[in-house]
Amino acid sequence: ALFMENARKGSIVSRANSIGSTSASSVPNTDDEDSDYHQETYKESYKDRRRRAHTQAEQKRRDAIKKGYDDLQAIVPTCEQQDFSIGSQKLSKAIVLQKTIDYIQFLHKEKKKQEEEVSTLRKDVMALKIMKVNYEQIVKAHQDNPNEGKDQVSDEVKFNVFQGIMDSLFQSFNASISVTSFQELSACVFSWIEEHCKPQTLRDIVIGVLHQLKSQLY
């Protein structure tokens, strides 16, 4: 009887273990599936974030380029002027760039022209300063010797002498100079100087003028 009782208990335990094993094998492994699901969701989310970041960066780049072209059209005067060749169409990027290049080249030329004008003005200022110093020295000399120069000829007589000399030179100049072109003018000027401005010729002109104004000198 004891043997039969133990055998019955063993059979019950064996069947219980068998049923437990079968139940455990039929239950799904939810931990592994959850892990795979979260990992796949993470990968998809990372790709979406990268795609979204790339899209935003590309949009910023396009906005920056568009703003740059808009600024150029607002700054460059020729972009605001109406171009009848293209009508009322919006200026293309190529046209905006070309007009910008042309305007920059124009500014460079204007800058060079202004620099040349400034250089010329500086030379004029330097010449005026030299003349100022010379006149100051002349004035000082007259102030130191107030009686000097009372017997000198008047400014009117000096002007008449100068006018007589210039009139004589102009007669030969006008008869010898051709103004058909700048090249002919340049060539005629040099030939006129060589022929009519020799020291002896100038001396004869001055003597002749002085003889004509002799009555005004004495």
Automatic annotation (TrEMBL):
GO CC terms, sorted: cytoplasm; nucleoplasm
GO MF annotation: an example: RNA polymerase II cis-regulatory region sequence-specific DNA binding
Signal sequence range: none
Subcellular location: Cytoplasm; Nucleus
Pfam families linked: HLH (PF00010)
All residue ranges annotated as the BHLH domain in the record: 49-107
UniProt region (Disordered), positions on chain: 1-64
CDD domains listed in its UniProt record: bHLHzip_Mlx (cd19687)
Coiled-coil annotated spans: 104-131
DNA-binding among keywords: yes
Keywords: Activator, Coiled coil, Cytoplasm, DNA-binding, Nucleus, Phosphoprotein, Repressor, Transcription, Transcription regulation
Tree of life domain: Eukaryota
Biased composition regions of type Polar residues, renumbered to the chain: 14-29
Compositional bias of kind Basic and acidic residues: 36-47, 55-64
Quaternary organization: Efficient DNA binding requires dimerization with another bHLH protein. Binds DNA as a heterodimer with MAD1, MAD4, MNT, WBSCR14 and MLXIP. Can also bind DNA as a homodimer.
Function: Transcription regulator. Forms a sequence-specific DNA-binding protein complex with MAD1, MAD4, MNT, WBSCR14 and MLXIP which recognizes the core sequence 5'-CACGTG-3'. The TCFL4-MAD1, TCFL4-MAD4, TCFL4-WBSCR14 complexes are transcriptional repressors. Plays a role in transcriptional activation of glycolytic target genes. Involved in glucose-responsive gene regulation.
Name assigned to this protein: Max-like protein X
Organism of provenance: Rostratula benghalensis (greater painted-snipe)
Gene name linked to the record: Mlx
